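Hey L., structure's done. Input below.
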Amino acid sequence: MARWMRAAAMGVVASLAAGGVQADNATRPVVVELFTSQGCSSCPPADALLGDLANRPGVLALGFHVDYWDSRSWRDPFSTPEATARQRDYAQHFNGGQIYTPQMVVDGIREMVGSDARAVAAALAAPRAAATRVAFAGDGRSVTVGAGTGRGRVLLVRFLRHRTTPIGGGENASRTATDTNAVETLAVLGDWAGGGVSYTIEPPRQGEGVAVLVQAADGQILGAAGFGTREGA
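Output:
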């Protein structure tokens, strides 16, 4: 393991332990989104942190790869304009429209530099509640959003659980990227207005995972669940 990877991993473990991360599975997992890119030299420590979080109970960790780092010398195979658009939407609430990498967003309402393990640990330890319960069928072929309070959109996220990629150009040339829960698609299943609703979905294939998020217009996560992850069934 490279020296910067070892240092990042050691810092992650220490900060998360000191922060007293809570795993409140009776409500919902805490949703952590990392906006990252294989073309960003500051991102590997944040990618390592996301990998650690993905293995923790009570955490649903997702890696959104933006496309504004893509260049002729290297294009991130996970990058999508949808990931960039999602980050820009968050930026309207957090940073006056400014975007950067690596950035972590916790539960849609807190943001910090993606490699700042102490700030992430503090956000994970903050109290949270669920406005609705999200549950997958045992075979992963359907998902139910329960009755509750509030309004939001129901989002379906599909991701690859783990992949290593030799980087052939850009700021990380000659390094090997290790990506965890890298988002491949993001789709809207429908709107949620407080009533119970169910959706039929395609289950994840080998090595893949899916997540369903219920998200309010202001970005707050109202409910969430994963399938094919540590947090999922």
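Confidence is low (pLDDT under 50) at residues 1-26. The longest strand covers residues 176-192.

-- N.
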